[in-house]
Amino acid sequence: MLVQGRSSLVHAGGYPFLMSLLFRHGPLASMVTDAPGDFDRLLQLTQHGIAIGAMAAFFAFLRRIYGSLPATLATLGWGTDLVFVGATSSTYPEWLQASLLAAAFCSAGLAFMQTNGPRKAVWYGTSVVFFSWCVLVKFNAVVLAPVYLVPLVAERRPLIRKLVWSGGYLLLALANLFVFVRFFHYPSTGTTRLTADTGWVLLTRMESVYDNELLPTSGPDTRRWLALASVLPMRYDVAAPGLFRSLDSIPAEFRAPYRPLFERFSRADDDEIREWLESHPVPEGFSVGLSVIPVCYYVGLFEGNDLGVRVALEAVESRPGTYVATTLRDLVTALTTRPKYPFFPLPQNMDVFEFGIASHKARGFVRLRQNDRPWNVPYAYRTPVVWLPGMRIFSWLNRLKLPGAVVSLLTMFAIGAAALSALFQRSMRMEVGIVLTMGLCVGGVLLASVLTLEFRWKEMCLVIPLVYALIAVGLTWAPTESRRLVRVLTRA
Fold first, then answer.
1. 16-30, 127-141, 269-283, 366-380: which has the minimum mean pLDDT?
2. Which terminal residue of the chain has fewer beta carbons within 10 Å of its beta carbon, N or C?
């Protein structure tokens, strides 16, 4: 997507759109084909430069609120986190999403602190622009949009003025969306709809929740789905980004023989479908999560997506207890473990992925014997030469990180101290409000993730800046605030 300058209906297109502005036009455009090695290096330098800029802005903001020590700890944690560094060193979009979220958060905080009306409006507008592109880089960030209600409510301005501002910022967000869709997404995909994989995501969640079982008793859409599964070829092997490249990624003439089957089951009454299912079971090897793929492939992307979403909702409605219990279990798991991903060749993973040292070079560099990159190898190199001391440093950083349970305890301590301070003092100081807002953001992403799929390294990468800020606040500001609160309550 990045090299081709295309959007997609399975991966959000904000990252290739923004990065292609640098590399698809002007003097650098020919580098992709003429000097791919130079392109790789320049891309990585550019991405790390953007990330460092976001870290610098985040540091300056936190220092202004909490002081140098919490700001330094938060920025160091973010900057040395191997998940974030690995994503920044590749073409995963999560690093850009996290950087944009941090920029949006800082801009909104600075806007709230402004007393000058025009400056306040400009900073809020800047925050909205950053957040709009954060969502367009990956759509899961949209769950954080309601957080903008916090400054809307907290601002001590007339209600009419706040409503006018909100309307203006909504128009600004829609303007950014229009630019993205009109000039990048629609020409690539042939549609203004942003994604066609929601059904795939939700049914994958249903597979894990209900042990790969869809009950015909769940509802009429589920029965239609099972009927389709009984007649469409079970082509799970086409589950790849190419299928979702555009609306016409599969020629209409190829789909023509199968669309009447879909239309037949869509129009059939429920009794007819029930009778059909009695003599037409789903084939052996049926997968709930992948069952959307044959419908998208043989019928149409949106037909498969939209019906798949309704099937997932019926599954939850018919067996809510199992869904809630599984979600709570996954929530506990997310709070007690840290999702990781092996972005780099480390001594702990090289043998597993069939990498080894082929030869030693000068100044600590080594040439790797590289796997031919089957689907399960998470990293590879155009030129497999790495710096051995750097590999050892990354290995040390990989072991140094705090356990998931400790991270959760520190973030909860920070949030708890802020919540108690706001409750007992009946006021909302800036440092208290920032902690509570960060906690709201992290909690929102965590809950939305376990409700719809799972809390993976990708979701963790999105909130990494806020998580490390909460850890730093939990280590520094929260103990001081707790002692201060105890003294206040004791005197009272």
1. 366-380
2. C
> What is the number of other CB atoms lying within 10 angstroms of the CB of residue 300?
19
| Closest listed residue to residue 295, CA positions, set 253, 217, 243, 246 | 243
The DSSP element (H or E) to which 45 belongs, if any, is helix 36-66
According to the model, what pLDDT value does residue 427 have? 73
Q: What is the mean pLDDT of residues 20-35?
A: 73
Rounded CA separation 95/465 (Å): 10
φ, ψ of residue 375 in degrees (nearest 5): -60, -25
Q: Which residues contact 50 (CB under 8 A, 6 or more apart)?
A: 96, 99
Q: How far apart are CA 122 and CA 99, in angstroms?
A: 20
Give this prediction's pTM. 0.93
Residue identified by tokens 């003439």 is 253
Are 335 and 298 within 8 A, CB to CB? no
CB atoms inside a 10 Å sphere around CB 426: 7
**Distance separating the N- and C-terminal Cα atoms of the chain:** 62
Can you tell me the distance from the alpha carbon of 166 to that of 159, in angstroms, rounded to the nearest whole number? 10
Q: Which of 394, 354, 456, 368 is nearest to 85 (CA)?
A: 394
Structure tokens, 243: 């299928």
CA separation for the pair 275, 273 (Å, rounded): 5
Q: Output the 3-class SS for 392-403.
A: HHHHHHHHHCCC
pLDDT tens digits for range 371-395? 776 566 777 777 778 888 888 888 8
pLDDT band at residue 488 using 50, 70 and 90 as cut-offs: confident
Of 59, 10, 466, nearest to 246 (Cα)? 10
Which of 293, 317, 318 lies closest to 217 in space, CA to CA? 318
pLDDT given for residue 384 in this prediction: 78
Q: Give the Cα separation of 351 and 344 in Å (integer).
A: 13
- Residues 187-242 have pLDDT tens digits of 999 999 999 999 999 999 999 999 999 999 999 999 999 999 999 999 999 999 99
